[in-house]
Amino acid sequence: MSWEQITEAAFIPVCAGLSGWAFVEAWNTFRLCTRGQWIEAEIVAVREDTDGDGDPRFYPEVAFTPPDRDEVRVESRVGRLYPIDRSQRIRVRYDQAKPRRVRPEGYGGPGLFACLVSGGAGAFVAVGLFLGTFT
Fold first, then answer.
1. What pairs with residue 60 in β-bridges?
2. Phi, psi (degrees; rounded to nearest 5) at 58
3. Three-state secondary-structure class, residue 130
4. Which SS3 state, helix, strand or coil, does residue 126 take?
5. Under a CB-based contact definition with an 8 Å cutoff, are residues 39 and 66 in contact?
6. Statement: the pTM of the whole predicted model exceeds 0.70
7. C-alpha to C-alpha distances, 33 to 30, 46, 77, 102, nearest whole angstrom
8. Three-state secondary structure call for residue 3
9. 120 burial class (0-12, 13-18, 19+ CB within 10 angstroms)?
10. Distance between CA 79 and CA 114 in Å, rounded?
11. How many CB atoms lie within 10 A of CB 124?
12. Is the four-CA dihedral 10, 15, 16, 20 of positive or negative sign?
């Protein structure tokens, strides 16, 4: 095997892993969009962090009580650039089967189409590298 083939072979599991992650994100987004229910939630805490460039990000932790269940507290996976008022209430979409899977209104992550396209592209590149390296 040449050095070039070894380098290409190293990218196969990376592309396959990223593709798998994108498809799982697409599935979670699809389930949340199709089965999710809207509910009012209270912001109980806000975590301040920084992104890769050093810019501030604010991640709210919300609390809500689904019907016939105990209170659920979840931190948003997506942050905002500006501070969040803790006294306000926001709407969240939650999955009834897994209430900890939420998306607060106004806090969008990657959409279903973006996840499917990136998953397909990653799989396409992984197969192309595999066929180019080992055939």
1. 46
2. -120, 120
3. helix
4. helix
5. yes
6. no
7. 5, 25, 16, 10
8. helix
9. middle
10. 19
11. 12
12. positive
Residue 62 · residue 90 · CB < 8 Å: yes
Q: Residues of 29-57 as b/e, b for ≥16 C-beta within 10 angstroms?
A: beebeeebeebebbbeebeeeeeeeeeee
The 3-state DSSP class for residue 74 equals strand
- Structure tokens belonging to residue 128: 């192309």
Q: What is the DSSP string of 5-47?
A: HHHHHHHHHHHHHHHHHHHHHHHHHHHHHHHEEEEEEEEEEEE
Nearest residue to 104 via CA among 67, 61, 134, 133: 61
Task: Look up residue 3 and give its two tokens.
Answer: 């050095």
Q: What is the pLDDT of residues 4-57, one digit of tens each?
A: 878 888 888 888 898 999 998 888 888 888 888 999 999 998 888 888 788 888
Q: For tokens 């987004």, what's the residue?
A: 29
**Look-up: residue for tokens 């590298």?**
129
Q: CA-CA distance, 67 to 111, in Å (whole number)?
A: 27
- Name the 3-class secondary structure at 100: coil
